[in-house]
Design brief:
Length: 72
């Protein structure tokens, strides 16, 4: 087998590994999002209630808006 053939095989293995790694990591990421969903309004209400505060709708929406802006 020539040098060119070895280089071709290595390049194909590298590309195949990158594609396979992409799909595996995407599947793992989706699975993690299903197990641990991002924070929502209900979670904010519970958190404020646990801190001893009665959350108003305005406060909840304000916190959600600030969190969405921070994530961008």
């Amino acid at each position: 087998m020539g040098t060119l053939a070895w280089v071709g095989i290595c390049v194909l293995c590298l590309i195949g590994g990158a594609v396979l790694g992409f799909f595996i990591s995407r599947a793992v990421f989706k699975k993690q999002l299903e197990k641990n969903p991002p924070i929502n309004e209900k979670m904010i209400r519970v958190m404020l209630t646990q801190m001893g505060r009665k959350p108003s709708e305005k406060q909840v929406r304000e916190i959600m808006r600030s969190m969405n802006q921070a994530n961008k």
